[in-house]
Amino acid sequence: MAIPGGFWSTLSSPLVRQNPVTLQILGICSALAVTTSLDTALTMAASLTVVLVMSAGVVSVIRRHIPSTIRLIVQIIIVASLVIVIDQFLQAYFYDISKRLSVFVSLITTNCLVLGRTESFARSNPPLPSMIDALGNGLGYSLVLVVIGAVRELFGMGSLFGYPVLPTVDQGGWFTPLNLMLLAPSAFFLLGGLVWAIRSLRPEQVEAPEFEAPAVSEERA
Amino acid sequence: MADLNPISAWKRFLALPNESRTKTIGMAFIVAVVCAVLVNGATVILRPIQQQNRAAEQQMRLEALISAIPGMRELIDEAGGDALTTVVIDLDAGQAARDVTPETLEAALQDPGNWTTLSPAQDIAGLGARPDYAQVYILRDGEEVSLAILPIAGAGYNGTIRAMLALHGDMNTIAGLSVIEQSETPGLGARIEEPAWQLGFAGKRVMDDSGTVRFSVARGPASSEYEVDGITGATRTSNAMTGIVRFWLGPDGYGPFIQAVRKGEF
Fold this sequence. Notes:
The complex is a heterodimer.
Chain A: H1 6-12, H2 28-33, H3 38-61, H4 71-93, H5 95-101, H6 112-120, H7 127-157, E1 159-160, E2 163-164, H8 184-201
Antiparallel strand pairs in A: 1-2
Helix pairs in contact in A: 1-7, 3-4, 3-5, 3-6, 3-7, 4-5, 4-6, 6-7, 7-8
Chain B: H1 6-15, H2 21-68, H3 72-79, E1 84-90, E2 95-96, H4 105-110, E3 115-117, E4 129-131, E5 133-141, E6 144-155, E7 160-168, E8 174-181, H5 195-199, E9 216-217, E10 227-228, H6 235-249, H7 255-262
Parallel strand pairs in B: 9-10
Antiparallel strand pairs in B: 1-2, 1-5, 3-4, 5-6, 6-7, 7-8
Protein name (chain B): Na(+)-translocating NADH-quinone reductase subunit C
Domain FMN-binding (chain B): 156-252
Subunit structure (chain B): Composed of six subunits; NqrA, NqrB, NqrC, NqrD, NqrE and NqrF.
């Protein structure tokens, strides 16, 4: 299961080549919900990366002693506990951002990206490679969130990190904010566009069609 | 003979096959205990900081609301630092609550007996149930109430909206509004947090001469003294704000309290 080429490739391959969001389409629920502005996207990305790395480390340390019958429950409990700790931490030290992230930090528990990495990688690898793999996947997820968050905030509000970049009409500038960018569908469009762009550049990521559409016969038509 | 040395017992436990029943239950137990300690530890250690954050925010909103009302800062400074009194009122009676104080309010509201379930016809703010007690802030000019700040809440489009509504002494003119908590769509409904929109509340009237609550958030620009400007693209949030203000100033909300203040009983 270990990826050949050492730690560097374990860390770097999930950034674009094996990106968990754009290639495997994992964890997109939160990727869509928290990307209306760059600071929430960044906080969410950091929280997920921390949870991912720590849960991969813990699961990997006890991997030889997890009974396979209850392995999913054990993994989910570890992930959920870490998520609660992170959520409490954000509420204590990043109160404003945690209010805007609301329920989505808690929902990291059910993020299939986290369970996917602990189940498929950390459970069968030593702690260090597992944590590096988790860090790589976390950074890959972060990259997508930051890109989408930046585009949505820039075109939806004309600002980045809350600082005005494009002067909006409200403030006497020329830029009319695109309200669509702040609504959930725009995240789908952007993510779809991103997947399309990456797969155009890297055709090996294109999946084989699962079935051919039957040709319409002349008589019926 | 049973080996009672804990270290060798631990080694024997780890050496058990993973599928054995003892190890399965043992592992589940150990993981659960460790996680419980972790979660509880974090919650207990961080709780004081979180409470400080909430209290600081409440205070900040209250002060922002007061300073946004024209002339209010001067009035309070004139009357002295602690001019704003905090009172817990019994909503049904419209009087100060006898046995609930601001300190015990939180505990009292834990008791479901202190909540009134609302019928769908009454429940225009989407609350489901309403607390029987509310903490309000009152500024007096001599004996007369010159300003009352009332917390209001209700269901918005995406979640609960909480706000503070300030009424002038006639209990009919709005002095200001400050949204404390909302999770509306950013850029659309969330614009209820913008000071520019909240300024529109100042000077609006709530009831007509017959005592019916007429206040509403308009569709588009306000056209009467009972209306504030609507927010384009946020009809549901605007309607929610209308419902919330109407509910809380109506007979099921602060109605009895407002009557009492008007009669000079408060």
